[in-house]
Hints:
The chain is α/β, with parallel strands linked by helices. Among the domains are: 53-211, 3-Layer(aba) Sandwich (Rossmann fold), CATH 3.40.50; 441-547, ANL, C-terminal domain (GMP Synthetase, Chain A, domain 3, 2-Layer Sandwich). Helix content is 30%, strand content 25%. The protein is built from 16 helices and 27 strands. Strand 13 (311-315), helix 11 (321-330) and strand 14 form a beta-alpha-beta unit. Helix 2 (55-71) crosses helix 3 (90-99) and helix 9 packs across helix 10 (284-296).
Amino acid sequence: MPITEILERNAKLYGNDVALVEVNPEIQEKRRVTWREYELIEQSEYSHYRREITWHVFNEKANRFANLLISRGIKKGDKVAILLMNCLEWLPIYFGVLKTGALAVPLNFRYTSDEIKYCLELAECDVLVFGNSFIGRVEEIADQISARRLLFYVGGGEGGICPSFAEDYDHLVANCPSITPDIKLCDDDFAAIYFSSGTTGFPKAILHKHQSLMHSCKVEQAHHSQTKDDIFLCIPPLYHTGAKMHWFGSFLVGAKSVLLRGVKPEMIIDTVSKEKCSIVWLLVPWAQDILDAIDRGDIKLENYQLSQWRLMHIGAQPVPPSLISRWKQHFPHHQYDTNYGLSESIGPGCVHLGVENIHKVGAIGKAGYGWETKIVNEQGQPVKSGEVGELCVKGPGVMTCYYNDPEATEEVLKDGWLFTGDMAQEDEDGFIFLVDRKKDVIISGGENLYPVQIEDFIRSNMKVKDVAVIGLPDKRLGEIAAAIIEIKPGCECTEEEMMKFCSGLPRYKRPHKIIFADIPRNPTGKIEKPKLRQIYCGESLVAAQNKG
Length: 548
Protein backbone atom coordinates (compact mmCIF):
# COMPACT_ATOMS: atom_id res chain seq x y z
CA MET A 1 0.00 0.00 0.00
CA PRO A 2 1.16 3.61 -0.47
CA ILE A 3 2.96 5.06 2.51
CA THR A 4 0.39 7.86 2.91
CA GLU A 5 -2.06 5.30 4.30
CA ILE A 6 0.19 4.80 7.34
CA LEU A 7 -0.20 8.49 8.20
CA GLU A 8 -3.98 8.26 7.83
CA ARG A 9 -4.02 5.21 10.11
CA ASN A 10 -1.83 6.87 12.75
CA ALA A 11 -4.10 9.92 12.77
CA LYS A 12 -7.13 7.71 13.38
CA LEU A 13 -5.59 5.40 16.00
CA TYR A 14 -3.26 7.81 17.81
CA GLY A 15 -4.66 11.22 16.91
CA ASN A 16 -3.97 12.90 20.26
CA ASP A 17 -0.53 11.34 20.76
CA VAL A 18 2.56 13.40 20.00
CA ALA A 19 4.05 12.43 16.64
CA LEU A 20 6.94 14.88 16.23
CA VAL A 21 8.93 17.17 18.48
CA GLU A 22 11.37 19.79 17.24
CA VAL A 23 14.16 20.83 19.61
CA ASN A 24 16.33 23.76 18.51
CA PRO A 25 18.72 24.79 21.30
CA GLU A 26 20.57 27.09 18.92
CA ILE A 27 17.77 29.66 18.90
CA GLN A 28 19.47 32.64 20.53
CA GLU A 29 16.44 34.76 21.33
CA LYS A 30 14.65 33.29 24.33
CA ARG A 31 11.09 33.49 23.22
CA ARG A 32 8.09 31.26 22.95
CA VAL A 33 7.65 30.03 19.39
CA THR A 34 4.11 30.14 18.10
CA TRP A 35 2.86 28.22 15.10
CA ARG A 36 -0.50 29.01 13.59
CA GLU A 37 -3.03 26.21 14.26
CA TYR A 38 -0.48 23.94 15.94
CA GLU A 39 -0.84 22.61 19.46
CA LEU A 40 0.32 24.91 22.21
CA ILE A 41 3.06 23.50 24.40
CA GLU A 42 3.81 23.74 28.09
CA GLN A 43 5.65 26.94 28.87
CA SER A 44 9.09 26.68 30.42
CA GLU A 45 12.61 27.81 29.56
CA TYR A 46 12.96 24.61 27.54
CA SER A 47 9.75 25.38 25.61
CA HIS A 48 11.36 28.47 24.12
CA TYR A 49 13.11 26.18 21.65
CA ARG A 50 10.72 23.23 21.58
CA ARG A 51 7.64 22.59 19.41
CA GLU A 52 5.49 19.52 18.97
CA ILE A 53 2.55 18.22 16.94
CA THR A 54 0.19 15.26 17.29
CA TRP A 55 -0.56 12.65 14.64
CA HIS A 56 -3.90 14.34 13.99
CA VAL A 57 -2.26 17.70 13.32
CA PHE A 58 0.52 16.08 11.29
CA ASN A 59 -2.05 14.50 8.99
CA GLU A 60 -4.16 17.65 8.89
CA LYS A 61 -1.21 19.83 7.85
CA ALA A 62 -0.24 17.30 5.16
CA ASN A 63 -3.82 17.44 3.82
CA ARG A 64 -3.84 21.24 3.82
CA PHE A 65 -0.65 21.42 1.79
CA ALA A 66 -1.87 18.71 -0.58
CA ASN A 67 -5.07 20.68 -1.20
CA LEU A 68 -3.08 23.87 -1.72
CA LEU A 69 -0.95 22.15 -4.36
CA ILE A 70 -4.00 20.66 -6.08
CA SER A 71 -5.69 24.07 -6.14
CA ARG A 72 -2.62 25.39 -7.99
CA GLY A 73 -2.80 22.68 -10.63
CA ILE A 74 -0.30 20.18 -9.22
CA LYS A 75 -1.26 16.67 -10.24
CA LYS A 76 -0.10 13.09 -10.16
CA GLY A 77 3.41 12.77 -11.57
CA ASP A 78 4.45 16.40 -10.99
CA LYS A 79 7.47 17.11 -8.79
CA VAL A 80 7.78 19.26 -5.69
CA ALA A 81 11.26 20.14 -4.38
CA ILE A 82 11.80 20.62 -0.62
CA LEU A 83 14.70 22.78 0.58
CA LEU A 84 14.40 23.04 4.36
CA MET A 85 16.48 22.53 7.46
CA ASN A 86 15.06 19.89 9.80
CA CYS A 87 11.88 21.29 11.34
CA LEU A 88 8.31 20.35 12.22
CA GLU A 89 7.10 21.51 8.82
CA TRP A 90 9.39 19.17 6.89
CA LEU A 91 7.52 15.87 7.15
CA PRO A 92 3.96 17.26 6.84
CA ILE A 93 5.10 18.99 3.63
CA TYR A 94 6.70 15.77 2.37
CA PHE A 95 3.52 13.77 2.98
CA GLY A 96 1.37 16.57 1.59
CA VAL A 97 3.25 16.21 -1.68
CA LEU A 98 2.77 12.43 -1.70
CA LYS A 99 -0.97 12.77 -1.05
CA THR A 100 -1.37 14.67 -4.32
CA GLY A 101 0.26 11.86 -6.27
CA ALA A 102 3.17 14.17 -7.02
CA LEU A 103 6.79 13.23 -6.30
CA ALA A 104 8.66 14.70 -3.34
CA VAL A 105 12.15 15.91 -4.28
CA PRO A 106 14.26 16.69 -1.18
CA LEU A 107 17.29 18.92 -1.75
CA ASN A 108 20.58 19.01 0.14
CA PHE A 109 20.71 22.08 2.38
CA ARG A 110 24.35 22.65 1.38
CA TYR A 111 23.57 23.10 -2.30
CA THR A 112 24.75 26.33 -3.88
CA SER A 113 22.39 28.37 -6.04
CA ASP A 114 23.75 26.71 -9.17
CA GLU A 115 23.25 23.24 -7.70
CA ILE A 116 19.69 24.07 -6.64
CA LYS A 117 18.91 25.24 -10.17
CA TYR A 118 20.61 22.16 -11.67
CA CYS A 119 18.58 19.75 -9.51
CA LEU A 120 15.29 21.55 -10.15
CA GLU A 121 15.88 21.24 -13.88
CA LEU A 122 17.18 17.66 -13.81
CA ALA A 123 14.16 16.45 -11.82
CA GLU A 124 11.80 18.70 -13.83
CA CYS A 125 10.35 20.19 -10.65
CA ASP A 126 7.14 22.20 -10.78
CA VAL A 127 7.33 23.63 -7.23
CA LEU A 128 10.08 24.67 -4.82
CA VAL A 129 9.35 24.88 -1.09
CA PHE A 130 12.17 26.60 0.80
CA GLY A 131 12.92 27.92 4.26
CA ASN A 132 14.38 31.03 5.84
CA SER A 133 17.99 29.76 5.62
CA PHE A 134 17.81 29.64 1.82
CA ILE A 135 16.33 33.04 0.89
CA GLY A 136 19.65 34.37 -0.36
CA ARG A 137 20.47 31.35 -2.51
CA VAL A 138 17.01 31.15 -4.02
CA GLU A 139 16.92 34.89 -4.66
CA GLU A 140 20.06 34.56 -6.80
CA ILE A 141 18.22 32.26 -9.22
CA ALA A 142 14.61 33.38 -8.67
CA ASP A 143 14.33 35.10 -12.05
CA GLN A 144 15.57 31.94 -13.80
CA ILE A 145 13.37 29.42 -11.98
CA SER A 146 10.14 31.25 -11.15
CA ALA A 147 8.77 31.61 -14.68
CA ARG A 148 7.44 28.08 -14.75
CA ARG A 149 7.55 27.08 -11.08
CA LEU A 150 5.65 27.86 -7.91
CA LEU A 151 7.84 29.10 -5.05
CA PHE A 152 6.58 28.73 -1.46
CA TYR A 153 8.41 30.22 1.52
CA VAL A 154 8.18 28.40 4.88
CA GLY A 155 8.80 30.60 7.91
CA GLY A 156 7.85 28.12 10.61
CA GLY A 157 9.61 28.43 13.92
CA GLU A 158 12.43 30.49 12.40
CA GLY A 159 10.15 33.42 11.69
CA GLY A 160 11.27 35.79 8.99
CA ILE A 161 9.39 37.69 6.29
CA CYS A 162 8.28 36.06 3.05
CA PRO A 163 10.42 37.39 0.19
CA SER A 164 8.69 39.16 -2.68
CA PHE A 165 9.56 36.46 -5.22
CA ALA A 166 7.70 33.71 -3.28
CA GLU A 167 4.32 32.99 -1.67
CA ASP A 168 3.81 32.56 2.07
CA TYR A 169 3.27 28.85 2.80
CA ASP A 170 2.23 29.42 6.43
CA HIS A 171 -0.51 31.86 5.47
CA LEU A 172 -1.79 29.85 2.51
CA VAL A 173 -2.09 26.42 4.15
CA ALA A 174 -4.01 27.87 7.08
CA ASN A 175 -6.87 28.63 4.69
CA CYS A 176 -6.90 25.29 2.86
CA PRO A 177 -9.24 22.34 3.59
CA SER A 178 -7.89 19.73 6.01
CA ILE A 179 -9.72 16.79 4.43
CA THR A 180 -7.80 14.04 2.65
CA PRO A 181 -7.71 14.67 -1.12
CA ASP A 182 -9.38 12.03 -3.26
CA ILE A 183 -6.28 10.83 -5.11
CA LYS A 184 -5.90 7.11 -5.72
CA LEU A 185 -2.38 5.78 -5.16
CA CYS A 186 -0.78 2.34 -5.43
CA ASP A 187 2.58 0.72 -4.70
CA ASP A 188 3.65 1.09 -8.32
CA ASP A 189 3.19 4.87 -8.40
CA PHE A 190 6.30 7.04 -8.34
CA ALA A 191 6.80 8.71 -4.97
CA ALA A 192 10.12 10.50 -4.67
CA ILE A 193 13.35 11.59 -6.27
CA TYR A 194 16.43 11.68 -4.08
CA PHE A 195 19.83 12.96 -5.14
CA SER A 196 23.13 11.11 -4.89
CA SER A 197 25.95 12.63 -2.85
CA GLY A 198 27.51 14.04 -6.00
CA THR A 199 31.04 12.82 -5.17
CA THR A 200 31.95 12.70 -8.87
CA GLY A 201 30.41 15.96 -10.04
CA PHE A 202 26.79 17.10 -10.00
CA PRO A 203 24.39 14.67 -8.27
CA LYS A 204 22.20 12.10 -10.01
CA ALA A 205 18.41 12.02 -9.54
CA ILE A 206 17.27 8.71 -8.00
CA LEU A 207 13.68 7.69 -8.74
CA HIS A 208 11.70 5.59 -6.23
CA LYS A 209 8.17 4.20 -6.08
CA HIS A 210 5.81 3.95 -3.10
CA GLN A 211 6.81 0.30 -2.88
CA SER A 212 10.37 1.37 -2.02
CA LEU A 213 9.23 3.69 0.76
CA MET A 214 6.94 1.07 2.28
CA HIS A 215 9.66 -1.57 2.15
CA SER A 216 11.97 0.82 3.98
CA CYS A 217 9.41 1.12 6.79
CA LYS A 218 9.23 -2.66 7.14
CA VAL A 219 13.00 -3.11 7.00
CA GLU A 220 13.71 -0.57 9.72
CA GLN A 221 11.03 -1.93 12.08
CA ALA A 222 12.13 -5.53 11.47
CA HIS A 223 15.73 -4.67 12.30
CA HIS A 224 15.22 -2.52 15.40
CA SER A 225 11.89 -3.73 16.80
CA GLN A 226 10.37 -0.29 17.36
CA THR A 227 7.20 -0.26 19.44
CA LYS A 228 4.68 2.48 20.12
CA ASP A 229 6.54 3.24 23.36
CA ASP A 230 9.89 3.92 21.73
CA ILE A 231 11.07 7.48 21.12
CA PHE A 232 13.48 8.04 18.23
CA LEU A 233 15.99 10.88 18.19
CA CYS A 234 16.60 12.08 14.63
CA ILE A 235 19.62 14.33 14.13
CA PRO A 236 20.79 13.89 10.48
CA PRO A 237 19.13 15.94 7.73
CA LEU A 238 15.73 14.74 6.52
CA TYR A 239 16.58 15.47 2.89
CA HIS A 240 18.75 12.34 3.00
CA THR A 241 17.31 8.83 2.85
CA GLY A 242 19.27 7.78 5.94
CA ALA A 243 17.48 9.92 8.52
CA LYS A 244 14.05 9.59 6.99
CA MET A 245 14.16 5.84 6.48
CA HIS A 246 15.27 5.25 10.06
CA TRP A 247 12.36 7.43 11.15
CA PHE A 248 10.08 5.28 9.00
CA GLY A 249 10.40 2.44 11.53
CA SER A 250 8.91 4.67 14.23
CA PHE A 251 6.36 6.04 11.77
CA LEU A 252 5.15 2.50 11.00
CA VAL A 253 4.20 1.86 14.65
CA GLY A 254 2.97 5.38 15.47
CA ALA A 255 5.84 6.13 17.84
CA LYS A 256 7.00 9.59 18.82
CA SER A 257 10.16 11.06 17.27
CA VAL A 258 12.32 14.05 18.13
CA LEU A 259 14.04 16.26 15.55
CA LEU A 260 17.15 17.81 17.10
CA ARG A 261 18.65 20.90 15.47
CA GLY A 262 22.27 20.63 16.55
CA VAL A 263 25.04 18.06 16.93
CA LYS A 264 27.00 19.22 19.95
CA PRO A 265 27.57 16.31 22.37
CA GLU A 266 25.90 18.10 25.28
CA MET A 267 22.85 18.87 23.11
CA ILE A 268 22.47 15.24 22.12
CA ILE A 269 22.79 13.81 25.62
CA ASP A 270 20.56 16.52 27.11
CA THR A 271 17.84 15.86 24.52
CA VAL A 272 18.00 12.09 25.06
CA SER A 273 17.52 12.77 28.76
CA LYS A 274 14.75 15.38 28.60
CA GLU A 275 12.77 13.72 25.81
CA LYS A 276 13.33 10.19 27.17
CA CYS A 277 14.64 8.93 23.84
CA SER A 278 15.18 5.19 23.56
CA ILE A 279 16.68 4.95 20.04
CA VAL A 280 19.40 7.21 18.66
CA TRP A 281 21.04 7.01 15.25
CA LEU A 282 24.46 8.67 15.16
CA LEU A 283 27.16 9.33 12.63
CA VAL A 284 30.72 8.31 13.50
CA PRO A 285 31.97 11.88 14.21
CA TRP A 286 29.08 12.58 16.60
CA ALA A 287 29.65 9.35 18.52
CA GLN A 288 33.34 10.17 18.77
CA ASP A 289 32.57 13.69 19.99
CA ILE A 290 30.25 12.33 22.70
CA LEU A 291 32.90 9.91 23.94
CA ASP A 292 35.58 12.61 23.92
CA ALA A 293 33.29 14.97 25.88
CA ILE A 294 32.67 12.22 28.46
CA ASP A 295 36.39 11.48 28.74
CA ARG A 296 37.16 15.19 29.21
CA GLY A 297 34.52 15.47 31.91
CA ASP A 298 32.41 17.93 29.90
CA ILE A 299 29.54 15.42 30.10
CA LYS A 300 28.87 13.67 33.38
CA LEU A 301 26.47 10.85 32.60
CA GLU A 302 25.16 10.69 36.17
CA ASN A 303 23.55 14.11 35.62
CA TYR A 304 21.20 12.76 32.94
CA GLN A 305 18.27 10.35 32.70
CA LEU A 306 19.55 7.79 30.20
CA SER A 307 18.30 4.43 31.48
CA GLN A 308 15.56 4.33 28.80
CA TRP A 309 18.14 4.61 25.96
CA ARG A 310 18.25 1.05 24.61
CA LEU A 311 19.73 1.28 21.09
CA MET A 312 22.54 3.26 19.50
CA HIS A 313 23.08 2.56 15.84
CA ILE A 314 25.42 4.01 13.23
CA GLY A 315 25.38 4.16 9.46
CA ALA A 316 26.60 6.10 6.41
CA GLN A 317 30.21 4.89 6.65
CA PRO A 318 32.42 2.08 7.97
CA VAL A 319 32.51 2.03 11.77
CA PRO A 320 35.87 1.61 13.55
CA PRO A 321 35.66 -1.32 16.03
CA SER A 322 37.67 0.77 18.50
CA LEU A 323 34.82 3.31 18.60
CA ILE A 324 32.23 0.73 19.62
CA SER A 325 34.59 -0.75 22.20
CA ARG A 326 34.87 2.70 23.80
CA TRP A 327 31.12 3.21 23.54
CA LYS A 328 30.31 -0.02 25.36
CA GLN A 329 32.63 1.00 28.20
CA HIS A 330 30.40 4.00 28.92
CA PHE A 331 27.07 2.47 27.82
CA PRO A 332 27.34 -1.26 28.58
CA HIS A 333 23.56 -1.78 28.47
CA HIS A 334 23.14 -0.42 24.93
CA GLN A 335 22.21 -2.57 22.00
CA TYR A 336 24.30 -1.67 18.98
CA ASP A 337 23.71 -2.02 15.25
CA THR A 338 25.28 -0.71 12.08
CA ASN A 339 23.38 -0.15 8.88
CA TYR A 340 24.52 -0.03 5.29
CA GLY A 341 22.65 1.40 2.34
CA LEU A 342 22.56 3.87 -0.49
CA SER A 343 19.97 6.34 -1.70
CA GLU A 344 19.68 4.02 -4.68
CA SER A 345 18.51 1.30 -2.28
CA ILE A 346 16.20 3.68 -0.38
CA GLY A 347 18.74 4.29 2.34
CA PRO A 348 19.92 2.09 5.21
CA GLY A 349 19.08 -1.52 5.82
CA CYS A 350 19.81 -3.49 2.67
CA VAL A 351 22.70 -4.81 4.77
CA HIS A 352 22.81 -4.61 8.56
CA LEU A 353 24.83 -6.11 11.39
CA GLY A 354 21.99 -6.99 13.78
CA VAL A 355 21.90 -6.22 17.49
CA GLU A 356 22.67 -9.88 18.26
CA ASN A 357 25.97 -9.76 16.34
CA ILE A 358 28.02 -7.22 18.25
CA HIS A 359 30.88 -9.75 18.26
CA LYS A 360 31.20 -8.96 14.56
CA VAL A 361 31.70 -5.21 14.96
CA GLY A 362 33.62 -3.96 11.95
CA ALA A 363 31.37 -5.85 9.54
CA ILE A 364 28.37 -4.16 7.94
CA GLY A 365 26.52 -7.45 8.43
CA LYS A 366 24.38 -9.62 6.21
CA ALA A 367 21.51 -9.03 3.79
CA GLY A 368 18.73 -7.07 5.49
CA TYR A 369 15.05 -7.94 5.73
CA GLY A 370 13.75 -8.73 2.23
CA TRP A 371 17.14 -8.12 0.61
CA GLU A 372 19.68 -10.26 -1.27
CA THR A 373 23.43 -9.63 -1.59
CA LYS A 374 26.34 -10.90 -3.66
CA ILE A 375 29.97 -9.90 -4.18
CA VAL A 376 31.27 -10.08 -7.74
CA ASN A 377 34.47 -9.62 -9.72
CA GLU A 378 35.00 -7.37 -12.75
CA GLN A 379 33.25 -9.93 -14.95
CA GLY A 380 30.17 -9.96 -12.71
CA GLN A 381 30.89 -13.44 -11.35
CA PRO A 382 30.58 -14.17 -7.60
CA VAL A 383 33.93 -14.26 -5.78
CA LYS A 384 34.98 -16.80 -3.17
CA SER A 385 34.72 -16.15 0.56
CA GLY A 386 37.50 -13.81 1.65
CA GLU A 387 38.08 -12.37 -1.82
CA VAL A 388 37.43 -8.71 -2.55
CA GLY A 389 34.78 -7.76 -5.09
CA GLU A 390 31.98 -5.28 -5.74
CA LEU A 391 28.95 -5.51 -3.44
CA CYS A 392 25.59 -5.89 -5.21
CA VAL A 393 22.13 -5.78 -3.60
CA LYS A 394 18.66 -6.75 -4.79
CA GLY A 395 15.23 -6.18 -3.26
CA PRO A 396 11.97 -4.18 -3.28
CA GLY A 397 13.82 -1.00 -2.30
CA VAL A 398 16.07 -0.73 -5.35
CA MET A 399 15.50 2.46 -7.33
CA THR A 400 13.60 2.45 -10.59
CA CYS A 401 16.35 4.38 -12.38
CA TYR A 402 18.44 7.51 -12.44
CA TYR A 403 15.85 9.96 -13.69
CA ASN A 404 16.54 11.13 -17.25
CA ASP A 405 19.89 9.30 -17.28
CA PRO A 406 19.58 5.89 -19.00
CA GLU A 407 23.34 5.49 -19.46
CA ALA A 408 24.11 5.90 -15.77
CA THR A 409 21.20 3.59 -14.93
CA GLU A 410 22.53 0.89 -17.21
CA GLU A 411 25.92 1.05 -15.48
CA VAL A 412 24.54 0.16 -12.04
CA LEU A 413 21.28 -1.78 -12.62
CA LYS A 414 21.75 -5.24 -14.11
CA ASP A 415 19.06 -7.95 -13.99
CA GLY A 416 17.50 -6.34 -10.93
CA TRP A 417 20.83 -6.12 -9.09
CA LEU A 418 22.18 -2.75 -7.94
CA PHE A 419 25.96 -2.56 -8.32
CA THR A 420 26.90 -0.36 -5.36
CA GLY A 421 30.44 0.68 -6.29
CA ASP A 422 31.57 -0.49 -2.84
CA MET A 423 34.33 -3.07 -2.59
CA ALA A 424 33.67 -5.73 0.03
CA GLN A 425 34.56 -9.22 1.18
CA GLU A 426 32.62 -11.90 3.03
CA ASP A 427 34.07 -13.91 5.92
CA GLU A 428 33.59 -17.59 6.66
CA ASP A 429 30.40 -16.82 8.64
CA GLY A 430 28.79 -14.88 5.79
CA PHE A 431 29.34 -11.42 7.29
CA ILE A 432 30.20 -8.67 4.82
CA PHE A 433 33.06 -6.24 5.47
CA LEU A 434 33.40 -3.04 3.45
CA VAL A 435 36.85 -2.60 2.02
CA ASP A 436 36.40 0.73 0.26
CA ARG A 437 34.67 2.61 -2.50
CA LYS A 438 35.71 1.22 -5.87
CA LYS A 439 36.93 4.63 -7.00
CA ASP A 440 38.86 5.20 -3.74
CA VAL A 441 41.10 2.13 -4.07
CA ILE A 442 44.77 3.19 -4.26
CA ILE A 443 46.96 1.25 -6.69
CA SER A 444 50.54 1.59 -5.49
CA GLY A 445 53.23 -0.31 -7.37
CA GLY A 446 50.58 -2.68 -8.70
CA GLU A 447 49.27 -3.41 -5.18
CA ASN A 448 45.67 -2.56 -4.26
CA LEU A 449 45.46 -0.53 -1.06
CA TYR A 450 42.06 -0.10 0.61
CA PRO A 451 42.01 3.19 2.57
CA VAL A 452 39.32 2.05 5.03
CA GLN A 453 41.64 -0.63 6.41
CA ILE A 454 44.42 1.91 6.97
CA GLU A 455 41.99 4.45 8.45
CA ASP A 456 40.62 1.92 10.94
CA PHE A 457 44.14 1.21 12.18
CA ILE A 458 45.10 4.87 12.57
CA ARG A 459 41.84 5.66 14.39
CA SER A 460 42.88 3.26 17.15
CA ASN A 461 45.47 5.86 18.18
CA MET A 462 43.92 7.71 21.13
CA LYS A 463 45.26 11.05 19.88
CA VAL A 464 43.40 10.79 16.56
CA LYS A 465 40.00 12.42 16.18
CA ASP A 466 39.53 11.62 12.47
CA VAL A 467 41.51 10.37 9.50
CA ALA A 468 41.21 10.05 5.74
CA VAL A 469 43.59 8.16 3.47
CA ILE A 470 43.87 9.18 -0.18
CA GLY A 471 46.23 8.40 -3.04
CA LEU A 472 48.81 10.96 -4.11
CA PRO A 473 50.47 10.76 -7.54
CA ASP A 474 53.94 9.24 -7.56
CA LYS A 475 56.26 8.91 -10.59
CA ARG A 476 57.67 5.56 -9.49
CA LEU A 477 54.70 3.78 -7.87
CA GLY A 478 51.82 5.49 -9.66
CA GLU A 479 50.21 6.38 -6.35
CA ILE A 480 51.22 6.44 -2.71
CA ALA A 481 48.96 6.44 0.34
CA ALA A 482 48.73 9.71 2.27
CA ALA A 483 47.01 9.93 5.64
CA ILE A 484 45.32 13.23 6.46
CA ILE A 485 44.93 13.15 10.24
CA GLU A 486 42.89 15.40 12.51
CA ILE A 487 44.26 15.36 16.06
CA LYS A 488 41.99 15.67 19.09
CA PRO A 489 41.89 19.11 20.76
CA GLY A 490 44.57 19.41 23.43
CA CYS A 491 46.72 16.64 21.95
CA GLU A 492 50.03 16.96 20.14
CA CYS A 493 51.49 14.52 17.64
CA THR A 494 54.45 14.60 15.28
CA GLU A 495 54.85 13.03 11.86
CA GLU A 496 57.65 10.85 13.25
CA GLU A 497 55.41 9.64 16.08
CA MET A 498 52.59 8.75 13.70
CA MET A 499 54.92 6.98 11.27
CA LYS A 500 56.23 4.90 14.17
CA PHE A 501 52.65 4.06 15.17
CA CYS A 502 51.87 2.99 11.58
CA SER A 503 54.74 0.49 11.70
CA GLY A 504 52.11 -1.81 13.19
CA LEU A 505 50.62 -2.08 9.68
CA PRO A 506 52.02 -4.39 7.01
CA ARG A 507 54.78 -2.52 5.20
CA TYR A 508 52.85 -2.12 1.93
CA LYS A 509 49.86 -0.58 3.76
CA ARG A 510 51.82 2.06 5.66
CA PRO A 511 51.13 5.63 4.51
CA HIS A 512 54.08 7.28 2.76
CA LYS A 513 52.99 10.73 3.86
CA ILE A 514 51.35 12.15 7.00
CA ILE A 515 49.41 15.42 6.80
CA PHE A 516 47.89 17.01 9.91
CA ALA A 517 44.71 18.87 8.95
CA ASP A 518 40.93 18.98 9.51
CA ILE A 519 38.82 16.28 7.86
CA PRO A 520 35.83 17.64 5.88
CA ARG A 521 32.62 15.61 6.08
CA ASN A 522 29.26 16.08 4.38
CA PRO A 523 25.97 16.30 6.35
CA THR A 524 25.56 12.52 6.25
CA GLY A 525 28.94 11.96 7.85
CA LYS A 526 30.88 10.81 4.79
CA ILE A 527 34.43 12.03 4.35
CA GLU A 528 34.64 14.39 1.39
CA LYS A 529 37.61 12.73 -0.29
CA PRO A 530 37.15 14.59 -3.60
CA LYS A 531 37.70 17.82 -1.67
CA LEU A 532 40.85 16.39 -0.08
CA ARG A 533 42.12 15.22 -3.47
CA GLN A 534 41.53 18.69 -4.87
CA ILE A 535 43.56 20.21 -2.04
CA TYR A 536 46.44 17.76 -2.01
CA CYS A 537 46.51 16.24 -5.51
CA GLY A 538 45.55 19.10 -7.77
CA GLU A 539 42.76 19.61 -10.28
CA SER A 540 44.25 17.30 -12.94
CA LEU A 541 44.11 14.21 -10.75
CA VAL A 542 40.57 15.00 -9.63
CA ALA A 543 39.45 15.25 -13.26
CA ALA A 544 41.15 11.98 -14.13
CA GLN A 545 39.56 10.15 -11.19
CA ASN A 546 36.14 11.59 -11.87
CA LYS A 547 36.40 10.58 -15.51
CA GLY A 548 37.30 7.05 -14.44
